[in-house]
Design brief:
This protein has 14 helices and 16 strands. By secondary structure, it is of the alpha/beta class. It folds into 2 domains: 132 residues, Rossmann fold, CATH 3.40.50; 173 residues, 2-Layer Sandwich (Dihydrodipicolinate Reductase, domain 2). Strands 7, 8, 9, 10, 11, 12, 13, 14 and 16 form a 9-stranded mixed beta sheet that branches. Strands 3-2-1-4-5-6-15 form a 7-stranded parallel beta sheet, sandwiched between helices. Helix 1 packs across helix 12, helix 3 packs parallel to helix 4 and helix 10 runs antiparallel to helix 11. The longest helix has 18 residues. The radius of gyration is 20 Å and the shape is globular.
């Protein structure tokens, strides 16, 4: 029996790629492109139906802040994919509506408020045997997945470092808003059995790949990694984000250091400045890289181990892990019900292979 997936924000960059990959890689899933702007949803729907020569895509007007529209929309699908950053309390309305409709749920953002709502309803989600995946995509999403994979490789593991880099001179407004709105989040590093505040001046040179070379990176913190040190018995875990260009990096550093994102006026100014500097000063190579490096013991020998994920398009790189997770849900491969970070329930060699099949470049080194 066929399944239906509704993509909220389906005419955005990430949402459009998710729809396209689902249509290209399975014949049993129908797609609903949904959002506030019906005309944009209809344009995207027509494009996808023309490309794949079958009417498997439909358009629907759905405002994520409108309870009645959400209720009506969620009656039509088996799973909702939220491909835009929440604002103004939308996370509660969407999550409650999905739970009420009894459908599975995936989101692509890292909003703190959303985690709190999911925690509030975690017992009810589990009792209904629903799968709610949060923080899906490449970043967040894949860091926790890679951490589990590397942890499974070693007999014992001491240190782990996760580094990411993205470059795209045409990041849309919503993407930039998401970056700046989270700029004030405190960076943490795990060592001495505790997460500790990292100075924004603690920069490192990270050798990403032959394509992206060595870049200066600053420490960041990802909520999906909070439990990883205890689960893997790690001595140290650090996460770094590479720069985009000197002007963008300076704007981000100022907004982060002075915590300017907490006021709407300075947040909007930061978004405008970031967008301008990114558009006019970001140079090739474009794309995204996510690298995990670890140090531990395997069969009595000390080994270094790394996995690199790369793609030339950062939005396609975001869509690929989401689609891989959707396929695992519909194939019954994800057994853990309840509310979970995506990276904690898809960690398997099969998932990594599926990323490769969908177009992700994967490089594994152990030495």
């Amino acid at each position: 029996m066929g399944k239906k997936a509704l993509i909220l924000g389906g005419y955005g960059k990430a949402g459009s790629y998710i729809a396209e990959l689902l249509l290209a890689n399975t014949s049993r899933i129908e797609i609903i492109i949904a959002g506030r702007n019906l005309s944009q949803a209809e344009v995207e729907t027509k494009k996808l139906n023309n490309k794949f020569h079958r009417n498997r895509v439909s358009a629907l007007k759905v405002d994520a802040g409108n309870l009645e529209e959400l209720r009506g929309a969620f009656k039509l699908c088996d799973l909702v994919i939220v491909s835009f950053p929440y604002r103004d309390g939308q996370e509660r309305i969407v999550i409650e509506s999905a739970l009420e409709a009894g459908i599975n749920y995936i989101d692509l953002n890292a909003d703190t408020e959303k985690y709190q709502v999911l925690q509030e309803y975690s017992k009810e989600i589990e009792e209904q045997k629903l799968i709610f995946l949060t923080g899906a995509g490449i970043i967040p999403g894949c860091p926790a997945m890679l951490a589990h994979l590397v942890g499974d490789y070693y007999d014992s593991i001491q240190k782990m470092k996760i580094s990411s880099l993205y470059r795209d001179k045409n990041i849309p407004y919503g993407g930039v808003y998401d970056i700046i709105s989270h700029s004030g989040k405190t960076a943490l590093i795990y060592k001495n059995d505790a997460w500790q505040k990292a100075s924004p001046f603690t920069m490192k040179k990270i050798k990403f790949s032959d394509k992206f070379k060595t870049r200066i990176a600053v420490p960041v913190y990802l909520s999906e990694l909070e439990e990883i040190p205890k689960k893997l018995n790690l001595e140290e875990l650090s996460t770094y984000q590479g720069g985009i260009n000197p002007f963008v990096d300076a704007i981000y550093f100022i907004w982060k250091t002075l915590n300017l994102s907490h006021l709407e006026s300075t947040l909007n100014l930061g978004v405008k400045l970031f967008s301008w500097a990114n558009k006019y000063f970001t140079r090739p190579p474009f794309g995204l890289a996510l690298k995990i490096e670890a140090f531990g013991k395997k069969n009595g020998s000390v080994e270094n181990y790394s996995i690199l994920l790369e793609h030339t398009d950062m939005y396609l790189a975001t869509a690929i892990p989401v689609v891989a997770a959707v396929l695992q849900i519909f194939d019954g491969e994800i057994k853990k019900v309840g509310s979970n970070f995506m990276g904690h329930v898809v960690a398997s060699r099969g998932y990594l292979e599926r990323l490769k099949e969908l177009g992700m470049e994967v490089t594994i080194d152990n030495f």
